Inverse folding.
């Protein structure tokens, strides 16, 4: 009888230990947005020791691509398994990962030129304050990072470049860096909008939503205040834009990591990228 009891205790202890080593993902959370006049979904990853500790954690904002929503990194990116493994192996520090939905109402992470859909305002004025108040998240720049794939990679570039005071690290993956020329921008924008805009208005919007233009226009000190990890596959159709950002940063002598690996624009590539991203942003969280 004593042997059975001992075995049961051992099994229970082992089970509790395994559970304690696992993080939690909630992929159907929501908040009200006055700016977007709608309920906004988001997913969140909480690290293994979150429930049993009272400490505050660094945060990574992880943005999905076009066609996905807040569940993309959960369902296809396997964020729970990858983050748990990286933390367990000591390659990443325990962190909270926030994954917002940018595919409801209108697709994209930016304010519309006509001011009718201001997603970027929502992100910085409502989402960030909400999650950083609701969860035990450190609020200083050095404990905040951003990453994303494709459309979310574009969001990563623009958010970090336009708000360098807020992020310690940025890791755009296979990023859509914006139309590469003003002609491309006009063709897309005019063909897809009913409104009429003057040249200056279009030019200003283009300059503020193109990563190459932003890098060329910004002070080196501001760009370099962020640790950059740019990653794009050699068979990715967005290779040109990412290469141009890399070249623009090299010309301005902005320190950055630039990775071109074997792969295309798909989840196989991004699942391999995520462990490297978690390790990279953790270096800043640890004050490398």
């Amino acid at each position: 009888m004593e042997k059975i009891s001992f075995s049961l205790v051992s099994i229970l202890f082992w089970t509790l230990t395994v559970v304690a080593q696992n993080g939690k993902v909630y992929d159907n959370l929501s908040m009200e947005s006055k700016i977007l006049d709608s309920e906004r979904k988001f997913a969140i990853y909480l690290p293994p020791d979150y429930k049993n500790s009272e400490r505050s954690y660094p945060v990574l904002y992880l943005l999905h691509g076009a066609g996905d929503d807040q569940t993309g990194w959960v369902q296809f990116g396997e964020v729970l398994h990858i983050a748990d493994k990286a933390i367990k192996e000591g390659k990443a520090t325990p962190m909270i990962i926030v994954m917002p939905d940018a595919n409801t109402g209108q697709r994209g992470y930016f304010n519309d030129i006509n001011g009718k859909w201001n997603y970027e305002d929502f992100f910085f004025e409502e989402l960030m304050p909400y999650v950083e108040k609701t969860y035990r998240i450190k609020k200083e720049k050095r404990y905040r990072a951003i990453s994303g794939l494709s459309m979310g990679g574009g969001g990563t570039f623009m958010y970090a470049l336009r708000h360098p005071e807020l992020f310690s690290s940025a890791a755009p993956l296979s990023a859509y860096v914006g139309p590469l020329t003003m002609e491309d921008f006009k063709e897309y924008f005019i063909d897809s909008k009913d409104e009429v805009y003057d040249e200056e208005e279009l030019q200003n919007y283009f300059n503020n939503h193109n990563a190459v233009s932003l890098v060329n226009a910004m002070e080196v000190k501001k760009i370099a205040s962020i640790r950059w990890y740019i990653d794009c596959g050699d068979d990715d159709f967005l290779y040109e834009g990412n290469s141009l950002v890399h070249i623009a940063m090299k010309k301005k002598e902005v320190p950055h990591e630039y990775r071109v690996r074997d792969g295309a624009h798909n989840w196989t590539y991004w699942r391999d990228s995520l462990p490297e991203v978690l390790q990279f942003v953790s270096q800043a969280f640890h004050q490398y």
Summary: The domain at 24-285 is CATH 3.40.50.1820 (Rossmann fold). The chain has a mean pLDDT of 92.
